[in-house]
Design a protein that fits this description.
The protein has 264 residues and is of the alpha+beta class. The protein has eight helices and 15 strands. A hairpin with a 3-residue loop joins strand 3 and strand 4. Belongs to the inositol monophosphatase superfamily.
Length: 264
């Protein structure tokens, strides 16, 4: 996107993103810890009326404000647009949500399809009252600037992933080799771990099996905080990426991690 185009839309985005996240949070908190029923989708992942209700409300608001924008959501598929596409994951971490764990979030991103860049992204944690927002100009946590850690050596790094269950046996072997070279490793958190990385509390996040609506919002948050996020081949993420994602506090740490993944 040209700079002037960025400026024309970005002025509207902060309040609009916050409005979207606020609306999603009302629905999520209404259903959270209510022994909500859920169904299993074709890929065996769970879905609840909260997932569906949040996406429906976010779509309604986006379509009213930006009728020419496309939308791709986890629960309701894709609606084409003229230039921009919104990526929505209404509840990232549905398994946490249905089991009463507060580490679930709503992911919202706006992509400029013409320029091939994510204009803005948000990670909102409605049960915790924590929110990250990122653009090319920087990243914030609850409205205040954040930055990644200064860790540059793998041996001193704290590394996260959501679950071993998301890996193929081959990819798990690669991750296991990498993570055992770090200072320590932790599991769980879904999108929350990327917010922790943006705020400097962990140094690496490595995952597989992500969809575009899982990772598009992460890109401007991580990069706005000074970090770097790529696929396992070191390529920038885009909607067609294969779902293998690595986020690092800096390029030096990323290069060390990619070297281990490549050799493992």
């Amino acid at each position: 996107m040209a700079t002037s185009d960025h400026a024309s839309i970005e002025a509207e985005l902060v309040p609009f993103f916050n409005d979207l996240a606020d609306a999603a949070g009302v629905i999520a908190r209404h259903h959270f810890r209510t022994r909500i029923d859920f169904e299993q989708k074709d890929d065996l992942s769970p879905v609840t009326i909260a997932d569906q209700g949040i996406e429906r409300e976010l779509r309604r608001r986006i379509e009213a404000r930006f009728p020419d924008h496309g939308i791709l959501g986890e629960e309701m598929g894709s609606t084409p647009g003229e230039r921009y596409t919104w990526y929505l994951d209404p509840i990232d971490g549905t398994k946490s949500f249905i089991s009463g764990m507060p580490l679930f979030g709503t992911l919202i991103a706006l992509n400029d399809d013409r320029e091939g860049c994510v204009v803005a992204g948000m990670i909102d944690m409605p049960a915790l009252g924590e929110r990250w927002y990122g653009t090319a100009d920087g990243a914030t946590f609850n409205g205040l600037p954040v930055s990644v850690s200064a860790t540059t050596e793998l041996a001193a790094a704290q590394i996260y992933t959501s679950s071993p269950d998301f890996f193929t046996p081959e990819d798990w072997q690669r991750y296991d080799t990498l993570s055992r070279k770090a200072m320590f490793r932790r599991f769980g958190g879904d999108c929350y771990q990327y917010g922790l990385l943006a705020s400097g509390y962990c140094d690496l996040v490595v995952e597989t099996s992500l969809k575009s609506f899982d990772f598009m919002a992460l890109v401007p948050v991580i990069e706005g905080a000074g970090g770097i996020i790529r696929d396992w081949a070191g390529r920038p993420l885009d909607p067609s990426s294969d779902g293998r994602v690595i986020a690092a506090a800096n390029e030096k740490l990323l290069e060390q991690a990619l070297e281990v993944l490549d050799r493992a």
